[in-house]
Amino acid sequence: MIEQDVLDAELGDDDDFETIEVEGTELPDSRYLDRELSWLAFNQRVLELAEDPSQPLLERANFLAIFASNLDEFFMVRVAGLKRRILTGLAVPTNIGRAPQDVLADISAEAHRLQERHVRAWTELVRPALDEAGITFVGWDDLDGDEQAELYRYFQSQVFPVLMPLAVDPAHPFPYISGLSLNLAIRIRNARTGRQEFARLKVPPMLPRVVELPRVDGRIRLLPLEDLISNNLADLFPGMEILDHHTFRLTRNEDVVIEEDETENLIQALEAELSRRRFGPPIRLEVTEDMDDVTMALLLDELEITEQEVYRLQGLLDLRALFDLGRIDRPDLKYPARVPVTAVPFQPSEQNGTADIFAAIRKGDVLVHHPYESFATSVQAFLEQAAKDPQVLAIKQTLYRTSGDSPIVQALIDAAQAGKQVLALVEVKARFDEAANILWARKLEKAGVHVVYGLVGLKTHCKLALVVRQEEGMLRSYCHIGTGNYNPKTSRIYEDFGLFTIDEQVGKDLTRLFNELSGYAIEKKFKRLLVAPLHLRRGLLRHIDRERRNALAGKPARIRIKVNSMVDEQIIDALYRASQAGVPVDVWVRGICSLKPGVPGLSESIRVRSILGRYLEHSRIFSFANDGDEIVYIGSADMMHRNLDRRVEALVRVIHPPHVKELDDLFTLAMSDETASWHLTADGVWERHAVGADGARLADLQDLTMAAVQKRRRVRAVR
C-alpha cells in the first residue's frame, strides 16, 4: 500500500497546483497538425485495413462499413459544428492559424478523395474477392426470368406495402429528406398529359438492406434492396412512364447543443433538442455518378446545398450495408474465434467452482485487460455479486454508454429492489446515445434507483463503480475505475483496462467524487486520482514538467502516453518542451494527433505510433519515469479540450509493481519496430509498417497480447 504522504509529495496539495510556465525557445506557430485532417487520416488507416489482402475477407468488408459509419459521424458532428460556428459568427477553434473557410475547403477535398478511394476499395478489391469466395452481389439484370418472378412476389408481399412514394408538384411540396436515409429520385412522365413529374421514394430502413437469393451451387447471392425496388417502380406509378431514377443520400447536422444554464429540466430540453436534430441543415449529398443534370439541379435547389457538398460515387451508396455480411457463416473468412479468459484472480476456486470477487479484491489490486480478459467474469460479476450480497449496503455507478439489454443496468435494478442504496449517474448527453440513456434512466428511477444527471455544463465521462460492504463491524469500499464504458457488447471489441481495489484512499476519493456529482459538495482533494476539470490538466502538466527538469538534471526521464486523441495545445506544448530537454516521449494514439514528432529542435525525441486491428484500441495510459520511481495512471481522458476542461474525467494511479510492468511491457511492444503499426512523420503523414526488411509480416500486437494473457492463465493452472 502506497503511503499517503508519498502521494501528497508527488502531486502537491491541490491548492499548490499552478499553470506550468516554462521559459525556453519560442515554439513555432506551425507546430500543430490540423485536427480535422488528422481525423480523416485516421479513417484512411481504417480504409487501409480494408484494402489489405492479408486481412480476412469478411473483416475487410467490415472495415469498409466502419469507414462509412465513421465518416457519417464526422460530417454530422465535426463538419456540421464548423459550419454552424461559421454561420452564427462564433469563434471557430483552430490550432493551425488558417481561416475557417479554408479549413472546410481542405476537409471537403480530402473527404472527396477518401470517399472515392473507399468506393474503389469496394468495387475493385473487396467485391471481386468476395465473388471469388462464393459471395456475390448481383444486379436485377443478372437474374433469369424465374428468379425475377420469385423476387417480384417477395417485393409484392414484403416490400411494396411499406413503400411511400411522394410526388413533387404544385400541390405537393418537396418532401423532408431524413438524415442518412437512402432514397430514390424518380422522374416520370404522365402518359395522358405528357407532363414530366418528380417523385421521391425512401428505401425502408426497417427492411434488410440486402436480399439473399436462393443459393446456386453453394454460392451466396445478394441483391441490394434499392435495386429490387427500382426495377419494380411501375407498380408504384401505374399509368406513368418511368424516365429515370437515381439513388441519393443526405447527411444532416445532428450535433446537439443545449444551453444547460438556461434550462430548468435537462431531460425535457434534451428530448426537445433530439426532436429538432432530425431537421438539422444538410451538410453532404451523396449521389450515384450517373445522376442526370435535371435531377441534380432539383436536389441542389430544394436542399439548398452547394456543389462542394455533393459526392458523386460509383455503384452502391451507403456501404454501412456491409455490416450485414457479418452474419454470413463463413469462419474461414473471419478472424479466428477467441474466447476471453477469466482474469487469474477471479478464476473459480477448485473447492466450490465459483469465484468470490470480493475475496479476490481483498487479496490485492486486480488489473483486467478487455477483451482479452472477460468483462462478464470481472466487471459484470462484480456488480451482480454486489446486487445479491446481503452485506453490500450501497452501490454507486456512472453510466455513459451501455447496451440495450445491459446486465449492468439489471444488476443496479436488482440491488435497488433488494433494499440497497443505489446511485446511478446516467450521462444523458452521451452523443447519439441520448435517447437510449433517457429510457434507461427512467427505468432505473422506476425501480427505486437514485438517478442523477451530473453537473451542469459538464459531461460525466469517467468510468467508476463503488460498492460499500459491511465487514466485521466496519464499512469497506470496493472500487472499480476503468478506461471503457460499462457495456458488455462493446467490451468484446474495445480494448480497455479496469482496476479493482479496496485501497482506502481510492475509496475516499470515489466517495468524495460521487458526492460532488450527486450533490453540492465541492471537493478539492483527491489523493490517488487525477480528476477533470479541476485537477487533471494541471496534474499532467506537472508530471510532464518534472520529467523535463529531471532530464535537464541528468536524471532518468521518460514519458509514455496512450490515448484516442492528442489535440490539446497546452499538453502538446509541454511535450515539446520536454523533448527539447531530451526526454524520450512515446505517444500511442488511435485517432487524431495534432502533435508533430521528429521535428529538429522541437520534437526530435518524440515518436508517435498508431495501431488498428481486430479490436478498437480504447484504453488510456499515462506513464512517467519519475527518476526511477515510475508513476502510471489509467483512466478515461483523452488529450482534448473537452476531456480536460468540459468533462468529469478520472485517472487512477496503478501502484502494484506487476501491474506497472504489464502496462510498461505492453507499451514497449506497441512502440517496437518489430510490431505492425503506423508511424507519424514530421509532415503529418501516417506511414504503415506491416512488413519487415526481410519481407516477413511484422508481429500483431493484439495477437501477442492474447497469447500473453492465455499464458498467464496456464501458468496459474499449473501451479
Descriptive key words:
719 residues, alpha/beta, Endonuclease, Chain A, polyphosphate kinase like, 3 domains, 10-stranded mixed sheet, 8-stranded mixed sheet, 18 helices, 27 strands, 36% helix, disordered N terminus, ATP-binding, metal ion binding, nucleotide-binding
Please name the CATH architecture of the largest domain.
Answer: 2-Layer Sandwich
Assigned CATH class of the largest domain? Alpha Beta
**What characterizes the major β-sheet?**
10 strands, mixed
The CATH homologous superfamily of the largest domain is named Polyphosphate kinase middle domain
User: Radius of gyration from the CA trace?
Assistant: 28 Å
Helix content percent band: 25-40%
CATH fold annotation of the largest domain: polyphosphate kinase like
- Number of individual domains: 3
Strand content: 15-25%
Task: Provide structural commentary.
The protein is α/β, with parallel strands linked by helices. It has three domains: 12-30 and 530-718, Endonuclease Chain A (Endonuclease, Chain A, 2-Layer Sandwich); 100-333, 2-Layer Sandwich (polyphosphate kinase like); 344-525, 2-Layer Sandwich (Endonuclease, Chain A), CATH 3.30.870.10. Helix content is 36%, strand content 22%. It contains 18 helices and 27 strands. The strands form four sheets. Strands 14, 18, 19, 20, 21, 23, 24, 25, 26 and 27 form a ten-stranded mixed beta sheet that branches. It is globular and about 90 Å long.
